[in-house]
Amino acid sequence: MEQEDNDCEWDVGADSCEVNTDDLNANEDIDGKEEDDFKTDDFKDEEAEELPDLEWLEELSQDNDSDGDLVAEQADVKEMTYVETARMFKLRRNLDQLDNFQRQRECALLKAREDLNLLHQSIQSLQEQRDVLEHEIERQEAAENNAVLNRLRAQHKNLCSTLQREEEMEAHTNNELRHQELELSEVGLEVEKFSMLRQEVQEDERVFKVLKAQKAVKRLQQERKNNQTLQQKHVLLKKKQADMLEKEETLCRKKIEEVHTNHNIAAKHLKETIRRIWQQEAVREQQRKEALEKRIQAVKHLKSNIEANQENLRVRQSRAKAKTLKKECQQNRLKESLQAQGFNSTKHMFQQKREEEIKRKQEEFKERQKAKRVEIVDKILMEEQVLKSRKAQQAPLPKSRTGQTTLSPGRIREKLLRYLDCTSQTGAEREATLRNISVSSGSSLESQYQENIIQKGMLNLSLPDSLEEPEFCGLWDQNYKLPLNQKRVLAATVLKQEKPTVASPKLSITSKKLGAKELKGPSFSSKPEVILFKDFEVGETYKKKVILTNISYITNHCKLLGVSAQLQDFILINFQPPGPLSTGMSCEMHVTFHPSLNEEVEGEVLFASAAGRFSVPVRCTIKRCDLEVDSQFIDFGLHVVGQTISRTITLTNKGALATYFSLDTTMPISETHQVQMPSQLSASTCQETFTQPVTTITTCDDLTKSSTSMATREPQKMDHVSDGSTVSQKCQQESQLLAADPRATETCVSSSMDAQIEENMSDSCDITIGNVREGEIGPFETVKLELIFSPTVPGEVTLNLYMMFSDPTSNPIPIQVKGEGVGLPVWVVDPNIDLKICMFDRLYQDVVTLQSSTSAALKLTFNLCPEMRKHIDILPRTGFLQAQSSFTAHLKFVPRQSLSQDASKYFDSATGVLEVPMTVQVAGQVHPVIYTIQAIVTSSDLKFDQLEVDFGYCSIYQSIKSSVRLTNMSLLPQEFGFVAIPECVEVQPNDGFGTLLPQETLEIDVIFSASKAKEYRFHLSCKSGINRVFPLACRAMGVCPPLELSHYLVQFGPTAVGDHSTALLYLTYSQTGQKLSQQPVCAEGRLFSFTPSRGSSFKISPAAGRLLPGERCLVHVTFRPKLEDEDIKEEAERLLLKAKQLTEEEKLFDDETKKESIVDGSKGRKLSKSSKLSDTSKTVSPIETPPPDNIEAGSQKFEEARTSLLHSFTPRYNEYTISCFVSDGDPPAEDRQVQPTWSPLNTLYLKLQCPAIQPPLVVTSNNIRNYALDFQQVAVGERVIKKVGVQNISEESLELRSSLLDIYGPFSLLNSLRVITPGDNHVLVLAFCPTLEKRYCETLEVRCQKMTLALTLHGEGVFPAITCSHSGGVLDFGCVLEKESTSQVLKLQNSSDVAVGFKALLYSLLPSETQGADEKVALLLGGYTDSKIQPVVGTQNYNGLSVFGVVPVEGSIAARQSQDMVVTFHPDHSSVNYSDRLTIELANKSKLCALELKGAASSHNTYLQGGDPLTVPVESLLPPLITSPLYPAVQLAEMENPVLVSLHASYNMGAIRPAVRELSVGCIRTSKKGSEFHWDNLAPLQQKGFTVEPSKGYVEAGNKRTITITWTPQSGHKPNEVVQMCVPLTVKGDEMKVYNVTFMALVSTSVD
């Protein structure tokens, strides 16, 4: 039974000859699918057959007279629709099928009739032969020839049987003939039924032929018209081409004449131009040499200075090191002496160093103060000198912002002297200062530049005074001093300040409830909102008045709490509490600020009110410089050489701090961009130590590097960055040495700076800086700087300027200046015409625009290089450029393939770069205008990696793909497409169309499908976007394989992992088409073999086989998606790593919790322990995971990883191509083991498309390995139950169903299936119970809506090999004392490989058995004593317990192990009839062994066994408590122990064999003492022929003694005569017991 899964099976059946009459219904509708599939291409063969009729159609079209009938017929014919045409062909096909079926029935009928005639003839001949044989038999009977008669009768019998078979065949043929006639009549009726339909189809066919003829005529006429039109166009085209050729020849002659004329003129001008260029080049070369010589000299001079400085630095370094070593030695000695005296040397040394540092800082501060005073005095004296010299021309100083006039020089001097007095200067120092002032005033400069600087300095000196006016008017002019008493009042009113918690720049408040209202927002407003002390100076006092207004809706009060902690040393608050204030009322507060540090401070003043606290922010800012320029990029534009133009840069200081500026071309070098003016530099060299040696040395080094070469400035800047760090490190060690001698450093700075300035200015001499290069800019001032551009040579000039400042907080401002000089009045607007990337043999156009700055019109002539005349053209060549306007010419560029040969000096064939210098000659101008045409010329080729594609041998049933690499050799993207592709070829991707990027290579797949077995040769045309065609030759050989697949592509549906899908194919050996192939026709069978790859997820059955001609084989292709073992092992490794990480995290967390608990509840000793724990917890060992190879397939980790992958499975899609190899024939008949030849021409290819999806149902049990449940080995007859869990991991509910298991098999499903919701689980309970010793395998399919989960059930039935130490029969326990027990051990050995269960059954304890039925019958019959039937269950105990016991009753014996079973005999009264049956039964209900248990019990230690039974062996369970009154006790005692011994001697053939019997006397082992026995009165026995041996004896305890009794009949003894004797036997043990033994003997004549 074939199972179809996921609708993926292909069932290809045999073609049927049945005709469905419903298809012939004239009124049926034509399906849309059939309409779509129907194409006019289906009639190509019919049109090809009717091609010869075109001549007739041509005659019809030429003969106008014969068109009448056709036109008349066409008038009657209507155009058939597409549906009608399709219906006509379908009806015709069905009618033809019906006719064929009728012919087949007629042929079958004729064949049946012929068979019937043959049968008639055969029957007649057989009847004749029978008559002849009968006649011959009669004749032979008459002759009584028996031999011949038998032969003839046998022939007659055979002939009759043959005749009977022929008659039966005749009857069968008659029936078949009637059936064929009936079918033929039915088919005839069907044919007659559709006769009208046949006429209709014939009429439609006639109409269709007429319409086709009409269309052919119309097409022919149309083609003729088109041909005539094409001929006319061709004639017109030839005429146009001739006219064009004539015009081109005329133009060419004119151009040649003009070229000769222009060439002569250009040669003359060219010579002059070359001569002038040579002269200019010579002058430039001379200037270049002179400049280079100057630079070399400067570099040499600078190098010598550097070497001298380096030597000086080395000397100073050595001195510094010596001093440092000396100082360290002194410190070590001091330290040792202090330690010897008992002082703390470290503390003493630290204090000493700190005192030295404080003294050094104080000295430095005093020196800087002196230098600043000298500078101020210098400036004031210079200002006075200038004022005296100019007198009346001196303009009044500008007023300050507050309206106060600038102070006079005398007033300034007085203030200066007063300031100097305030600094506690001594009289001697003051006189020296005045002398310095007078000396410096005598040597002051008188230039206008210095006068401007002095004026600005005076303005700056007066600015701080004017800035203080608007804050507190009149306090400084009046020299206001606060009285002492007022100071005390202020001190009394100042409250204790509280430290604020939050310092906010805004007014902070808190909301509070008063009564039923909640006050929100500030209760007081301050004016101003922020108390700002801007641009303060240290040592001055500033005051502010603040007005606080009650803006709440209630009467409020205000209380001062204090100021912020950072303001307590600088701010003084004067505030009188006003008391209750109504709404809108205000109070005043005075804030006094006395700064002592030049640092910015922020804080707030805190108040308390009825609505809560609020604060007023306070901000104090120092003076700063805020510098900016109006523009950092200045473009002068285009200017003719020789013109001069200027631009102005405006420098603005928006800050309150003055600074010096300097505009220079050098880039700032160090981090501290300070600028010193000449006066400052001289003062610092005289009085100030060198405070910044690192910066100065770095500057020297960088200036040295910058002056070495002018052509490599940018790399030198990078060298500065790298070398500066090393130089700064060296200079930090030598700062003290260089501070002692600053003149050398100053000399180095000045010389290097001058050299760099001269160098930069020489480079950019066209752009210069005006008179003002440096100076001082005061607070809120503006300075204008002039830049001048005077181009000397044509071209673009760029200069980078840097505005540097002495203020360390102000960064340099870069300024870029750009200008372009135009050398001629006529120039090309774009001198570099870039045509970008161009292709060969393509036209590219551009414009050349010339601009004129003259006031007259000029004639222009465009010159072309001779090498580029084939490639470049300019139109017009000559033109007039109007005054102050532009002229545009069109440039045409067509690069030819000969460009590399024609213009090799302009064109680089390796890179494709073309650069052509072009000139424009201007009338009246000596120098031509030069411009350059630039382009990158590239090829437009598309290149295939192979010239020819050879597909090789291609089956007509398959397609072959060959890959070709197509490369774009151009630097531009190109579109391509394969056009005019043959029908047997397909080009992918995108059907052969696409776009190739520059230098990109694309892989093109060419798919070839042979339609016939022949040789193919064709070309593929790849056309580019510019209409270039690139051919690709292809060849192939079409072959027809002998075998054929019904389908070559199998598309499986989405199949879940664990499920499977099956497809059915047919492999057919068809000889049709073999004649067309190149292979010889083979009448033998052929071998085939499918070769799927190992480990693949699909299976083909049969994978190999043999087919005879005309046969076909059914092939099953099964797709089973699965997970790869490598992926599962990687997932298992990932899960292990994740689990270990979680374990380590849990350990760390536990350690941390233990650590916290120990820390919380422990003291110092425990803290140390917890610290150790934390240290150990931090050192976590690295996580090691086992390699994937160590994870075995089928292990628990492996299955967990599989389940994890199934839960996260993503859909996959794979395609496989499987080869089916076909042999050329059978192996040779001589040796069938030899492999036949396998030709690659016969190979078939099967393509499988296999999509895999996530399974909705997965197995969750650990006992499942690879969807297989193994029950292992189970004993035959036993039953093992296992459970399998499945889970729904989809998002839908699944209804589970299962397949049917074999009802006679060992496997069974014990529970029912149900619907499981998403995420739910279900358990399948499976049982395995083998009945035979063999392996079992069965498949259980659990089905749901989306998949079928196949579980393979394995199990092996093993017959249990159990042996018992007692093979069976009787197990006799002997005789024991009553109420005592004895036992025996049975050993059960399991020799099999499986555990086997067993059970011990006692017959007496079986409730289902009918016990004693046969014994009761024997008792009723009265012959029990003579019967051999013995009861199974004998005497039982009186207490109701079983006499025999077994331990254990049941259990299981492990494989290859043994089990001991103990059988116990425990009687409670004396009897010799104890018996039972013990059966050992295995778990499969088979019996291992059956033992008859026997035992006897005695009340004494002696007993006698043997003799014949005298009583019934079945005893009553009631004890004999009452004795019979008929017999006295003495008689009972005498009759208590009777024993009967019967002896039977045998008589046979005159000889008598004596009879022998045995009795046993035993002694129970109760003590070491034995027992004795003896016979009394043996003489009568001997007389009767009895012999007893021994007559007496001794029996040891625990043993038995056998007494042998022999009877030999005496002579004269009569047969059947009974001899009887009675002899007492006395046995002495713990008590004496006498047995009355009766001997009965007789002679028996029966044969044993």
Number of strands: 77
Residue runs with pLDDT of under 50 for 5 or more positions:
1-75, 394-409, 419-517, 670-764, 1163-1183, 1419-1428, 1521-1535
Rg, alpha carbons: 67 Å
**Mean pLDDT across every amino acid position:** 76
User: Whole-Å distance between the termini?
Assistant: 68 Å
Helix content: 25-40%
Count of separate DSSP helical elements: 24
Largest sheet: 6 strands, mixed
Hey, roughly how much beta strand do the residues contain?
Answer: 25-35%
Oligomeric state: single chain
Principal-axis shape equals flat
Structural class: alpha+beta
Task: Report on the architecture of this protein.
- The protein is of the alpha+beta class.
- The protein has 24 helices and 77 strands.
- Helix 5 crosses helix 7 (195-341) and helix 8 (345-390) packs across helix 11 (448-468).
- The model is unreliable at 1-75, 394-409, 419-517, 670-764, 1163-1183, 1419-1428 and 1521-1535 (pLDDT under 50).
